[in-house]
Design brief:
alpha/beta, 16 strands
């Protein structure tokens, strides 16, 4: 659910906009001045601002300029300016300062909703593409898949062999399925695969399926035709097209909506893409990698994942070993992370004492390599006398968790439990999405995705 701040001093107009936004399912607040708006912005995260130019304590353009400053936390927030009829110079100035769009007063509420939807769609697309481009740049850097254990060595050999076999196939390649626990290194294995193939100089596009907005997921993956659904916008490619003949990683494929699973299966079978609203089919030569930390076969039994897609995906499954199953690699990984964080924080490189290493070898690492990385980052920052002791690791402070399920949850399905937890947390935080996401250990986008999925 999008959160919008209406910065407008005309009370009747502001209230009518507020009512319309709430009817359409948005959350909104009204600020009657720049001062009041800045107070809201200091403690609340908004997705979009509706900003009037003429305000009692200043000019909205000055506020827009501060929002778009390089050191502003709000420089990427969507802003729609509202200008009085005939003040074209204000509209031009607003667009030059970085406004996403503008509306002339008196504002037609239907036009407002169309503009809002257009701006947010463009913002989501831009963020996803920018994110993918950054990921792609990083993917072409050397991959530090650290470890010499038999388990990891065999995995790297298998992935390299699969990539070499695909180099000899011109008729479309099977999908590489990477399974394993959270934090075990599935994304790193995908990059290893990408760099092991002859297509390593092509794009590497990472798609987090948990973060795809439900209402635009199809367009983001497959692209959309120009002016589709009465909205004025150019034709644009989806993320699969952006990958060209490189690699597209569909991270946590189990979170992809069932309707899109069918369309993805068609792409994998026929190797063609059809943008939303178009009749033209475009060929794709992308190499597909999918990951999952959930048991897809069980999800098929529970009717939460398509069986035909599962059988298409599990041709080349590679399981990423958990860190507790390759403890031989802990010392090498620890040294790598200590060097990394010492450089990052510009401190002398500390060393692990014997007791600290022993505790690391004994610890089960439920969060795998990601947890190890975070533990050592903290230890480097806290280390005294350039030595990391066992107390710096804070592993003893981690309580052993036991699975205690309340009686009211015992007869619920996993989906029902997830909805219950989301509802309870939102209630406890007074509907604050950002705070709820932090309490549940989710990103804000993942939180919104799950709220939309459960109709919250």
């Amino acid at each position: 659910m999008l959160e919008i701040l209406i910065i407008e001093d005309e009370k009747l107009f502001a209230k009518s906009v507020l009512r319309r936004l709430e009817i359409d399912g948005y959350q909104a607040k009204i600020a009657a001045s720049i001062t009041e708006a800045e107070q809201y912005l200091s403690h609340t995260e908004f997705d979009l601002l509706l900003l009037d130019v003429r305000l009692p304590d200043g000019n909205g353009l000055d506020l827009l300029k501060r929002l778009r400053a390089s050191d502003s936390a709000w420089q990427n927030t969507a802003v729609i300016m509202m200008t009085a009829y005939g003040e074209l110079e204000d509209a031009v100035a607003a667009m030059k300062l970085g406004a996403n769009d503008y509306l002339k007063k008196p504002v037609d509420l239907d036009e407002l909703m169309l503009t809002l939807e257009k701006v947010m769609q463009a913002k989501r697309t831009r963020e996803q593409l920018n994110f993918s481009q950054i990921r792609g740049q990083k993917a072409n850097e050397p991959v530090n898949f650290i470890g010499t254990s038999d388990e990891l060595s065999q995995l790297k050999q298998s992935i390299t062999h699969i990539a070499n076999m695909m180099d000899n196939n011109e008729d479309g390649c099977p999908v590489l399925l990477l399974t394993g626990e959270t934090g075990s290194g599935k994304e790193l294995a995908a990059k290893w695969f990408h760099q092991s193939g002859s297509w390593r100089e092509q794009p590497f596009v990472h798609v987090d399926c948990t973060a795809l907005p439900t209402e635009t997921a199809e367009a983001e993956l497959f692209g959309v035709a120009a002016n589709f659904a009465s909205h004025a916008h150019p034709s644009r490619p989806g993320l699969i097209e952006v990958a060209e003949s490189g690699t597209i990683l569909l991270d946590e494929i189990s979170e992809l909506p069932l309707a899109l699973q069918a369309k993805l299966l068609n792409v994998l079978e026929r190797r063609v893409i059809r943008r939303v609203g178009e009749l033209i089919e475009r060929p794709t030569k992308a190499h597909f990698v999918v990951t999952s930390n959930r048991d897809l076969a069980s999800l098929v039994d529970e009717k939460q994942f398509r069986s035909d897609l599962y059988y298409r995906l599990n041709t080349l499954e590679q399981k990423i070993p958990a860190l507790r199953d390759r403890k031989q690699d802990i010392a090498e990984l620890a040294q790598y992370f200590i060097e990394l964080y010492a450089r990052r924080y510009r401190v002398n490189q500390p060393r692990l004492d014997f007791d600290a290493m022993r505790k690391m070898q004994e610890y089960p690492w439920p969060g795998n390599v990601r947890e190890l990385s975070h533990v050592l980052e903290r230890a480097v920052m806290l280390a005294k006398h350039e030595i990391i002791s066992s107390s710096d690791l804070l592993l003893d402070s981690k309580p052993q968790k036991t699975m205690m399920m309340p009686a009211m949850l015992q007869d619920m399905t996993l989906e029902q439990i997830e909805k219950y937890l989301l509802s309870q947390t939102l209630q406890e935080t007074g509907g604050n999405v950002s705070k709820s996401a932090r309490q549940l250990g989710l990103s804000r986008m993942a939180m919104r995705y799950r709220m939309e999925k459960h109709g919250l």
